What does this fold into?
Amino acid sequence: MIMKKIDISASINGIKLPLCIMNASGVLCSTDQDLSNLLNSSSGGIVTKSCTYKPREGNILPRYFEWNIGSINSMGLPNLGIDFYINFIEKKKINKPIFLSISGLSIEENYSLVQKANQYSKITAIELNLSCPNILEKEKMLGYDFYGISNFIENIFKFNKKPLGIKLPPYFHEAHIKNIALILNQFPIFFVTCINSLPNGLFIDINKESVVIRPKKGFGGIGGSIIKPFALANIHKFYTYLRKDIAIIGCGGISSGKDIFEHILCGASAVQIGTQFMKEGISVFERLKKELIFLLKKKNYSSLNSFKGKLKYLQ
Ligand code: DHB
It folds into this structure.
């Protein structure tokens, strides 16, 4: 019997990833050590921690907590500032696509950050984060501001020449997804990443009768397995409404090869791992790769395109 070679590489609108699995921004991608570990790992690409112009300490500790099926965080954008991430990319041998995540505290700051990133050719692409839920001093979240987002992206594309994608928050109404997709379809966007954490969740320790993280009276963004149904729904609806050349990077609730399969079946071209990477560490990429290959062999698929977006409906 001839064994078919299983190809789990991905193309994000022409950006080639040797493997469709990468880290989600925020998780273990903030420091030189974190990013070096990712360079040496088998992840298919790297996303840096969302950066601001100046370095930030972030919110008071504890600011991250996880339980069996989820995580809650209110990190507050701790990051080393855009110059650190650009210097890292400029000085290291970069062996896979690297996405610079940007999350300015204001619209003006975002313009400056994108302008700066445009000056460096080793940055593969920009992931513009319009969905950070944890910043008190930030203007309202652009991802939920339908008028603001349109005007903002129009201005970005007046000068941006780099491959650029948008990290979106979860939406809970079809009309919202349709509206955002119709806006994004007007611009030369390379990809969207959906979804960011579910904003303003609350986890309680019943013994202590207390919240578990200190900032914002315990409220924070929710990630992990419990958000997978929302990630899948957002991916599939965006797959329906977005221009076909805008790739979708799926993010939310992946902890197994089966979860990756579901994201791709809904229309994702590649995936990102957040909470599970935090729980398991750098070996998560090798395990997920094995699990995905094993599943595709069992299903007799030889590449992601054989099933991408082909979710079936009941008659
Ligand atoms: C943070 C959290 C996010 O979900 C995000 O998209 C950006 C930043 C944070 O709190 O650091």
User: Anything to note?
Assistant: The longest helix spans residues 284-299. The pocket of 3,4-dihydroxybenzoic acid is lined by residues 26, 50, 74-77, 103, 129, 131-134, 196-197, 221 (CB under 6 Å). The mean pLDDT is 97.
